[in-house]
Design a protein that fits this description.
Chain lengths: 182, 121
């Protein structure tokens, strides 16, 4: 196994002994969550094409534990919004986000999803954070696959350190309430 | 070599652990994991657009008939693959056996056909 190219995730800090390993539950949960993010691609324009390249063999998002794309929000953890979101699309995006199972995270990929981009106009939503909370913004128009990968790795850092109680905390309830999400 | 009932104890323990692990993970994870419930969350997923009623409505038995017939003849084709790979080894005997197998299914096919099972309208 010494010449193996497989890189394994390092074990969290803990107390190891003969045949046992003790550590914090939150570390293990964070490690498990962050290394098995199931993406839900919400691709509406060119950033989606870059994401296809990210998923494909050359950039291979599967290396980071996101092998399976989920096209149903029920089994997805990571909503990737890629492309211009018109105001007519906003309620649909919101509904998809709402129907995702907890815990869930959102990445806004590209300028349009992050801020509306060049489409500073009446019909385009000026950033998806107007309708749903966003965890990571990836800049670029469109971003290169490396940038999308970097965004996903940043999200993994967030997930790794997230408290297991965050989703039931008053701050989180307040955040969702500010978006009128029950 | 005398085997007593206590020799099977490890197997029982293993079965208990296997079933127990599955049951524990299913039930405990549903209690420990975060979850939210709301009208929007629990409505059926229709790609984010407004829901058009319940998905569990009665629909024509024709779909079921066609689906079952498809599966039947699909399985027949699956059996043809190993036969095709071992065609030379199985020889004339294998050919005759597969002929009988396919003949039986073709009889069924004609029966379905004559019963108008394949007619959509």
């Amino acid at each position: 196994m010494s010449d193996s190219k497989i890189k394994q995730v390092e074990a969290p800090e803990g107390y190891a002994g003969e045949g046992f390993f003790a550590t914090k539950l939150s570390d293990v949960v964070g490690m498990a969550r962050s290394n098995s993010m199931w993406p839900l691609p919400f691709a509406t324009s060119c950033c989606g094409i870059e994401f296809m390249a990210t998923m494909a063999s050359h950039y291979d998002l599967a290396r980071f534990g996101s092998e399976r794309m989920s096209f149903s929000p029920r089994q997805a953890d990571m909503l990737l919004v890629m492309g211009t979101i018109a105001k007519k699309m906003a309620p649909i995006l919101r509904q998809v986000y709402e129907q995702m199972a907890e815990p869930k995270w959102v990445i806004a990929v590209g300028a349009c999803a992050s801020s509306g981009g060049i489409f500073d106009t009446y019909s385009v939503l000026q950033g998806i954070d107007k309708v749903i909370p966003v965890d990571v913004y990836v800049p670029g128009c469109p971003p290169r696959p490396e940038q999308i990968l970097d965004g996903i790795l940043r999200l993994q850092d967030i997930v790794k350190t997230e408290s297991v109680r965050r989703r039931s905390s008053p701050e989180y309830q307040q955040l969702l309430a500010s978006y009128n999400i029950e | 070599m005398q085997s007593t009932q206590t020799d099977y104890l490890p197997i029982i323990i293993q079965m208990v652990i296997a079933v127990g692990f599955v049951a524990t993970t299913i039930f405990v994870s549903s209690y420990l994991g975060p979850r939210r419930r709301s009208k929007n969350k629990d409505s059926s997923f229709e790609c984010g657009i407004e829901v058009h009623g319940n998905a569990r409505i009665p629909f024509s038995v024709k779909y079921f008939l066609v689906a079952i017939l498809f599966v039947l003849f699909d399985v027949e084709v699956i059996f043809l693959y190993p036969w095709a790979i071992n065609f030379r080894e199985l020889g004339a005997e294998g050919f005759a056996k597969m002929g009988i197998f396919m003949f039986l299914l073709i009889v069924g096919f004609f029966y379905v056909w004559k019963k108008k099972g394949l007619e959509w309208e």
